[in-house]
Design a protein that fits this description.
The structure holds two protein chains of two kinds.
Chain A lengths: L6 E3 L7 E7 L4 E7 L2 H18 L5 E7 L4 H15 L15
Parallel strand pairs in A: 3-4
Antiparallel strand pairs in A: 1-2, 2-4
Chain B lengths: L14 E6 L3 H4 L9 E5 L9 H14 L6 E5 L8 H11 L3 E4 L5 H18 L7 E6 L2 H5 L1 H5 L5 E6 L1 H7 L12 H14 L2 E4 L8 H14 L3 E4 L5 H8 L3 H19 L5 E3 L2 E3 L4 H13 L10
Parallel strand pairs in B: 1-2, 1-8, 2-3, 3-4, 4-5, 5-6, 6-7, 7-8
Antiparallel strand pairs in B: 9-10
Helix pairs in contact in B: 2-3, 3-4, 9-10, 11-12
The chains are: A alpha+beta, B alpha/beta.
Chain lengths: 100, 305
C-alpha cells in the first residue's frame, strides 16, 4: 500500500499506542517512544515492521508512541493508520488476509 | 491464534458485561471478571470517527486473547448507519460467538443481519450457522414486534431490552419500582418464552445506588429473566447471587429429575414427589435449576451437563 497522506490511529492511554504515518522517501523510517522501551523496545519494533511488511508498505515515516500496548493492539493501530492514510479504513478490509 | 469452540445457542447467560471495543486496556482482560458473556461494543461506546479503529482492535482481540469459557458477543451499529455491514464482516472473520443487533424493530431486521452474516461466513470460510444472534429492543415498535423478532431466526438465542432509548421514546424516566418499563419487560418476556428464546434485562447505570440495583435484580429474577446486561464488573457478583437457586430448590429439582427418570422408565407419566404432583411439564424447569446450580458450584451430580 502507498501512504497517500498523513494519518493517525490510537491514543496515549495506558495499554494503547498512538501511531502516525506520513508519506515516506522510498524507505521505512521508524521513530519509537515507549514507556517499556528497555524491556520490549526490540519486540515492538519487530511487530511494527512485520505489520508494515504484511500491508506491503515500503515507503513511510512512522511514529509510534507506545504506552505498554500488547502486540495485538500495536498491530491494530498500525493497520488502522495505514488504511486511513489511503482513505480505505471504513469498509472491505481483508480480515484474515493482509490484516491478521 | 485462539480457536473458540462452536457457540452454544442455549447456555447460561446471567451476566453480560458491556466493554468498549476501542479500549485495549479494557478488552485485554475482560474474561477475568467471571461474567457469563462479554459484550464488546462497536456502537454507542465508540465515537463516530473511531468506528474503523475499533474494528481493527476488535479483530485482533478476538484472534489473540483467550477468553476461555466467557462468551464473546459483539454489539454492532444500527442498520440505519453506514457501519453495520463491515461490523458483521469483522465479527464473523474474527470468530465472535454472537452478534447483538442494536435497535431491532422487526423480523426483517433480524433477517437482514442474518443474510449478511451468512455471506460473511461464506467469505471467510467459517462454518455456516456458527455465528449466533441476539436482538436488542429499544423502541415501542420493537417491543410490539417482540414475538416476530424472537422467532425470526434459528441463530437467535435471545432478546434484551435497552432501557435508555426505550424510556426516552416513552417519555418516562427510571423509576425505583420499575413501573416505567413494567409493560415492556412483561411483553418481551411473554414473546421470548412463547418463541423459546432467552430474555435479558437492561443495564442499571447508577453505580452508587446499590440498593436500587439490588431491587431491580430481584425484580428481574421474579419476572423470569435469564440474565441482565451490566456496565461494571462490580455488578456481577450480586446478579450471580440473586440468580443462584436456593439449596432447597436444588434438592427439589434433583429429586424431581431423578424420580422422573425412574418413573418414565417404568412407564409412569404422572407421579408425586413430597406430596406434589409432577409430570413432564416440570422437567425443563428442574433441569434448568440444576444447570444453574452447577454453574454456581452448588451441584456436582450428573443429571445435567
Amino acid at each position: 500500500m502507498e501512504i497517500l497522506r498523513s494519518a493517525m490511529a490510537g491514543t496515549l492511554e495506558s495499554s494503547d499506542a498512538q501511531v502516525i504515518v506520513e508519506p515516506g522517501n522510498g524507505r521505512i523510517e521508524l521513530s519509537l517512544q515507549s514507556s517499556v522501551m528497555n524491556q520490549y523496545g526490540r519486540q515492538i519494533k519487530a511487530t511494527v515492521l512485520e505489520t508494515l511488511e504484511r500491508l506491503d508498505v515500503s515507503s513511510v515515516r512512522i511514529t509510534v508512541v507506545d504506552k505498554g500496548a500488547l502486540d495485538c493492539t500495536l498491530k491494530a493501530r498500525v493497520e488502522c493508520a495505514v488504511y486511513r492514510s489511503c482513505g480505505a479504513s471504513a469498509a472491505n478490509i481483508p480480515w484474515g488476509g493482509a490484516v491478521r | 491464534m485462539i480457536p473458540r469452540p462452536r457457540p452454544e445457542r442455549f447456555r447460561l447467560r446471567r451476566t453480560m458485561m458491556f466493554m468498549n471495543a476501542q479500549k485495549p486496556g479494557l478488552i485485554k482482560d475482560a474474561y477475568i471478571y467471571g461474567c457469563d458473556s462479554i459484550m464488546l461494543d462497536l456502537e454507542d461506546a465508540v465515537a463516530e470517527n473511531q468506528k474503523d479503529a475499533a474494528r481493527f482492535s476488535l479483530y485482533h482481540a478476538l484472534k489473540t486473547i483467550d477468553y476461555g469459557d466467557t462468551e464473546v458477543i459483539v454489539r454492532i451499529n444500527g442498520l440505519d448507519t453506514p457501519h453495520w455491514q463491515e461490523d458483521i464482516r469483522v465479527c464473523v472473520a474474527g470468530g465472535a460467538d454472537g452478534i447483538r443487533i442494536a435497535k431491532c424493530e422487526s423480523a426483517q431486521d433480524v433477517k437482514t443481519v442474518e443474510a449478511a452474516v451468512e455471506a460473511a461466513e461464506e467469505e471467510f470460510g467459517v462454518e455456516k450457522g456458527r455465528t449466533l444472534l441476539m436482538a436488542a429492543l429499544e423502541s415501542p415498535k420493537g417491543i410490539l414486534n417482540a414475538y416476530e423478532i424472537c422467532s425470526a431466526s434459528e441463530r437467535l438465542f435471545g432478546v434484551a431490552i435497552s432501557g435508555g432509548d426505550f424510556r426516552k421514546c416513552m417519555q418516562t424516566s427510571f423509576q425505583p419500582d420499575g413501573v416505567d418499563m413494567l409493560a415492556a419487560r412483561g411483553q418481551m418476556l411473554l414473546a421470548a418464552r412463547a418463541a423459546g428464546v432467552q430474555c435479558f434485562d437492561t443495564v442499571f447505570t447508577d453505580l452508587d445506588n446499590e440498593e436500587g440495583f439490588r431491587a431491580e435484580v430481584l425484580q428481574n429474577k421474579a419476572m423470569g429473566f435469564d440474565g441482565k446486561s451490566l456496565i461494571n464488573p462490580k455488578q456481577i457478583r450480586l446478579v450471580h447471587q440473586v440468580f443462584a437457586p436456593t439449596r432447597k430448590e436444588v434438592l427439589q429439582a434433583e429429586k424431581i429429575v431423578r424420580a422422573y427418570q425412574e418413573q418414565s422408565a417404568a412407564g409412569v407419566g404422572v407421579f408425586t414427589v413430597d406430596g406434589k404432583m409432577i409430570d413432564i411439564a416440570f422437567i425443563p424447569g428442574a433441569e434448568r435449576t440444576l444447570r444453574l446450580a452447577k454453574a454456581c458450584g452448588m451441584y456436582e451430580g450428573d443429571l445435567v451437563k
